[in-house]
Amino acid sequence: MGASDTELLEATLPGTAPAPWPFLMRLPALLAADVTPLAWRDLLRQAHDELKERFLAEEPVEQLVHARAILIDSVLREAWRLHCAAHADWALAAVGGYGRGELHPCSDIDILLLVPGAPDLAGGAAVEQLVTFLWDIGLEVGHSVRTVAECREACVGDVSVMTTLLEARLLAGHAPLLAAMRVALAPDRIWPVKQFFEAKVREQSERHLKANDTAYNLEPNVKTGPGGLRDIQTIAWVAKRQFDADTLDGLATHGFVTPAELRRLKQAQAFLWKVRFGLHTLTGRHEDRLLFDHQIRLAQIFGYEDASYTLAVEQFMQRYYRTVMDVSLLNELLLQLFREAILTESEPPRPLNARFQVRNGSLEAINEEVFVRAPSALLELFALLQQNESIRGVRASTMRAVTKNLWLIDEEFRQNPRHHRLFLEIVRSPVGVTHELRRMNTYGVLGRYIPAFGRVVGRMQYDLFHAYTVDAHTLFVVSNLRRFAIARYDHELPEASRVMQSLPRSEVAYLAALFHDIAKGRGGDHSELGAVDAEAFCLEQGLSPYDARLVAWLVRNHLMLSITSQKQDIGDPQVISAFARKVGDETHLDYLYVLTCADVRGTNPKLWNSWKASLFSDFYQRVKRALRRGLESPIDPEHLVRETQDAARSLLIQRGVAEEDIAAVWLRFSAGYFLQHSPEEVAWHTRLLAERTAGSDEPLVALDARSVRGTTAALIFTRPRRHGFARTTAALDQLGLNIVDARITPSGDGFSLDLYHLLEDDGAPIEDQDRLLEIEQALWRSLQGDADAPFAVSRRAPRQARMFNTPTQIGVSVDERNRRSVLELTAGDRPGLLCEVGQVLMQERIELHAAKIMTVGERAEDVFYLTDFDNQPLSEPAAARLKERLVQALDARQAALRGPLPGKRLA
User: Fold this and answer.
1) Fewer CB within 10 Å of terminal CB in the chain, N or C?
2) Which residues 6+ apart lie within 8 Å of 50 measured at CB?
């Protein structure tokens, strides 16, 4: 193949041809020699190494993507010449992404061998030789051998096959045969434009749904995620089917995109290509997921540096998220344009008011000058969509006009009382609040109207706790609040729904949700900074001073209920009274409760579970009762004990347990036991202990599959054992269970009642009977094993958790009223952590009474209630020694599990 052939090859690729590649110019001479497959493989490796060097030298990625396609074209043409030249009536075509002339380092190489009829034995042998040769030289190709008729048949019921063949590009062989296939697959023969468009839109919707319908996941897929490369390709596929346009530039030729929109599309595509090219180069495989470790390394390669309040990786990912957000908007706009051109019969517009009309079911501005003449229409648009539920969407011309006129939303716009009324109308609407706030964010209106919100658009936090960007999380919180407000979702969280539907002004909750994380990334306490922003904004919008202060209070304290219930002993009357004093009244408590549930539920799908729902509800009810008693009437512990005992006794008598048996069991426990456990738990424990043979020393193990706490409760009643807590948690952890709470209660007759609340590792309840039996057997084994036998957890920490280095932080304080020490531990979460803590406690001769276990992404934030063996708080020397031992043990273990951090060097 001569240089002129290379030029011809470049001309066959869509778009701008890459800059001359010296290696490609040398290739014909290299291939002219009779080289072995091993030599071919070496040539390809050299070429890929050169592409990697060019990538690291920051050569435009568009050139690299096309250059690799040209390289593979050259190799395939030569392979065709060697093995299939005798079949002059065959054709070799590149299909799929390769057909577009776009190949990343590890992209799929899909080819079609188009034949006039079924190959004979010689033809079959030629195909086999070709494919074997390609594999031998290191090219993993996906190939199909079809006639024109078979191509058409394969496309009839499968739009993905139709799409793949739509991009067929001739590499070698009989061009008329490929032309015949194109005729057979033309829109007037198969997949008319309307059907093709509907199928591709449906395909895109299903793909988005798999990603939770958001582009802002922690580890997004750069190819298939919402706003990713596939969304750009969807536009191109529809354009090709309708206009036979080979490139995005064809959309401009046909007047479907403005020059500015085309430029944005190309810039977005180039950035996403750069990320994908980098992923393939880093990993050496077809990897399209932007995983945590890849994010760090790409941020380094792309030149990002840590700033005062944002990490380099956070800056890089904000650029990524803003890019996919722009792609999402352009995708929506252009697909709407196609919809109007392809699907809709034109109907006369129906006027709504002097600025808007409805055309073919979509909202449309009367003309392009509406927003300039009446800037308030930039907010009115969203209010009209709420008021007219029959309207299906926004016309493309109106979307385009909105984005073109965002500059009108300036300080003067934000100070206009009419605009304040419109914004509050949107937030107070009985329908469409979440939907229209999301649309406002997508169109860029929300970030312009609330500039502080605009600064957190696309902002990610590099941890495992926050699964979404700040803006996406914020809108999920609003969405959760809306679900609480709608009766048909009452079954999801009945208590939160009841409270939300009783609130006097739901917009207070929505505004608190909008501002609760708005100050993330500024440095300082985001709750305090956000509260200042929230109060100023609410007063500016015309809310009453009381409501503005309430919103600010909610923003300032939005973490208080979650942290208190998960890290403090909510059975302690003093904890309840102190929280009630902070809240002040039932109104503040009601708003805080629904905001907390919506916030935690919208932070990370894996964080919300039945345990948290039960914990928050229980704490809310306890504080509610304290407020109704009055802050001047503190809760009487003896009264709470009597309440629990009376309720438990009633349950037990219904189950046929005798009064004298109940009394005998309860004599074994102190008042603290009844403060720590619910009536249902006390009744369950009492029934089990009453059934035991009097004076028996045999251990007892029992499971309550559906405890009142929304967990599976595991009870162990036995004599105290050496390393009992460590052994039990090791056994449970090894099974992949999530221990969310532990309570160790000594009885008066030398036994210990240990209660563990369990969930599956993904937060799901444990329902399978075989799984429950497996847990029970593991607990028995932990009891019956040799007391000095070694034990540990061998389960590996998840890949994501190993990416983070969380320093161990320990604080020990004394709870004088309850005569115990409180150890607060922050460390990297991993399998076996509780076991390691338990071992150190036993070595230091420290008694554990309870553990509050809280996982915050990659961090464990646990609280342990301790005494020495004399049932006294730890002395200062003992507490200092415990802290030192724990830090040494946990940090050493984390370092061993974590291994070396990924560096900048490429594999």
Assistant:
1) C
2) 21, 23
